[in-house]
Amino acid sequence: MNTYLSEDLKKSWNDLGYVRIPNFIDLNDIDLLQKEIKKNIKNRFLNHSFTQHTHRYEKLRFNKENLLEESLQNPHAYVWSKELRYAVAKIICDTKIIELINFLSGENKKRAIWQSMYFDKSTGTLGHQDTYYLDTVDGGEVNAVLFALEDFKKESGPFYVIPKSHVLGPIYKERKIDVDERFDNHDLQASTLKDFEDKNFKSVVPQLLKKGEILIWNSFLFHGALNPKDPKLSRKSLTAHYYPADKDLKGFKTRPNISFPKNLNVPIMGYPSEYQNFKEKIKLIIKIINQSLFKKNKIDMDMRRDSYR
Ligand SMILES: O=C(O)CCC(=O)C(=O)O
Ligand SMILES: [Fe+2]
Predict the structure, then answer these.
(1) Ligand 2 center to 260 CA (angstroms)
(2) For the chain, what percent of residues have pLDDT higher than 70?
(3) Which atom number of ligand 1 is nearest to the Cα of residue 130?
(4) Which CATH architecture has domain 7-308?
(5) pTM for this entry
(6) Where would you tag: which of 24, 41, 100, 198 has the fewest CB atoms within 10 A of its CB?
(7) Best substitution site from 131, 134, 150, 159 to test ligand 1's pocket, by max atoms within 8 Å of Cβ?
(8) What is the DSSP letter of 122?
(9) What pLDDT does residue 172 have?
(10) What values do phi and psi take at 139, rounded to 5?
């Protein structure tokens, strides 16, 4: 058993709703991912990707420092590069994470990955609880992990949490917002959580992780990312969301398809075979043409804090 799996860790987890573990990620895997990002995103003509902060396909843009302005949703399914998909999977499909979640939850279960995200820099993610976006039907059973791919700096727009907020359960329920289904009333839900954050801003704790460290949190924990104070700074990170494979998920009528990347032992939703990826590529090209010809480019479920002032 890994030495960090202690009773103190479990106690912090129960009290705070999150814990951090330093020196968790293999540094070679971080180097590989950074190499693939450079090779397969930064130097590519066609590089559209789905991004979670506007919930639409964007042509990826870079700032003067060559940092991606958008976050990538599901880089493990990035259609333009198999190597990049695998470099993401190598980090997130780590059985040590399943062991950690099983230890913290006290439930030995098979678990799978629902969604991943890649950030070159902070996109100022609005404070939220993941339960509204990604959770089991029962709720409170999805755990997310942030993987620090470099040391986080204070001025870079760090990831933050409100410790102990997980005990509140879904805040939108308390505020009586009508959410019967996943994604119901998004913008009302988002502005209500912004309001919650404004009132509790003194409890926000920025998390200055070190390269290779992870932070794991519960789907009820309130978290987000601050806007960068210095736009030149990066905040390279990955996140991934893990769910118990025996549970029904919000927004799914049946259990989703999951698959294991080669030689890895944690399954992912939407990790494509070569053939599935080919089909996804064609679909994406049609969407890009559609978006640009018919200006079908509506921002949906905006996740940037600046949109909720
Ligand atoms: O890193 C961020 O800016 C936000 C990530 C996040 O909220 C998530 O992965 O659930
Ligand atoms: Fe989140």
Answers:
(1) 24
(2) 97
(3) 10
(4) Sandwich (2.60)
(5) 0.95
(6) 198
(7) 159
(8) -
(9) 84
(10) 90, 150
